[in-house]
Amino acid sequence: MDGDDKYLLKFKGYNFARLFVDINFLKNLDDFETRDDDVFVITYPKSGTIWTQQILSLIYYEGHRNRTEIVNTADRSPFLEYNLHKIDFEKRPSPRLFASHVPYYLAPKGLKNKKAKVIYVSRNPKDVLISYFHFSNMLVTFEASNNIGEFMEKFLDGKVVGSLWFCHESFDHMRGWYEHRHDFNILFMVYEEMKKDLRSSVLKISSFLEKELSEEDLDAVVNQAVFQNMKVDPQANYDSILKNEIGLRTKGHFLRKGTIGDWKHYLTVQQNERFDRVFQRKMKDFPLKFIWEIDEELDQ
Ligand SMILES: Nc1ncnc2c1ncn2[C@@H]1O[C@H](COP(=O)(O)O)[C@@H](OP(=O)(O)O)[C@H]1O
Ligand SMILES: CCc1ccc(OS(=O)(=O)O)cc1
Which residues form the Sulfotransferase domain (predicted)? Predict the structure, then answer.
């Protein structure tokens, strides 16, 4: 362990949420025993984790799809490093679904056998920034910021849970996973593409998982994963976990807006230009393109 902060726990160069993480678990993470049929959703925070967790559990378990099971997201596909409900992962029946924010170099080494599946979801970093600003002001377990400008500086410096989104070094989050993609059995998904065409995205995920869905099942998955329905689904939206287990500093929800280009409502021209300069410098040779905005009428 290096570094010390009330909210951040730095372990091997990466910032974990101090109040959720178990340092002894981290020390053994490398040797965490994976199974060939494990599935991991891996993201930088605020990139569509909970959404993809919901899609995965709907694909795998008819019970959720038919609303016959009363199991919340944190129990359907628990966070590997933030095991809120102290689930005994070894006793968990297969197939196990996990979520995680770990950078590629902290992932259990068993994932490199390329059997267990990884779904990496990315989102344009300006919307990540805005989503994260609201989220960290809302929860007592994250450091609050007075304004977007203040939070943006922390974000650009990597002084947040998840460390740097931006990267010029291959060990940072997005680039690290992308550049080491051949070491893993990995599918890259893009938040904005999921927004634009959820049905095709669900099909892409189910095909990667080798889980064939009937038309009827596909409809049910899509229907329960669209923002408006997920937002009011108490098993999917984390509301009771945030309120009763983690603690709210200000009123709000995990499913906040779920749109593309919300940053345009928050960043000043100067802030946006500063962000662009950093982005261009650090990501100039990165081959994937990001979707920064969409016609607002299409973004329903
Ligand atoms: N079904 C859905 N459709 C679109 N966005 C969703 C979604 N479920 C969650 N999100 C959005 O994903 C973000 C949270 O990401 P994560 O789960 O990685 O923490 C939030 O973004 P906003 O704060 O911009 O609304 C949340 O609203
Ligand atoms: C344990 C559930 C949980 C809650 C909040 C989280 O925040 S973040 O995604 O790391 O920003 C993560 C896990």
Answer: 36-286
pTM: 0.96
What is the number of the ligand closest to the CA of 189? 1
Q: What domains appear along the chain, each with residue ranges and CATH number? A: 14-283 (3.40.50.300)
Nearest of 103, 89, 113, 65 to residue 221 by alpha carbon: 65
Q: Residue 191 C-alpha to ligand 1 middle, in angstroms?
A: 9
Identify the pLDDT of residue 295: 82
Instruction: Check if 101 is active-site.
Output: yes
Low-confidence residues of the chain: pLDDT under 50: 1-3
Q: Could you report the predicted ipTM of this complex, rounded to two decimals? A: 0.97
The closest ligand to the CA of 86 turns out to be: 2
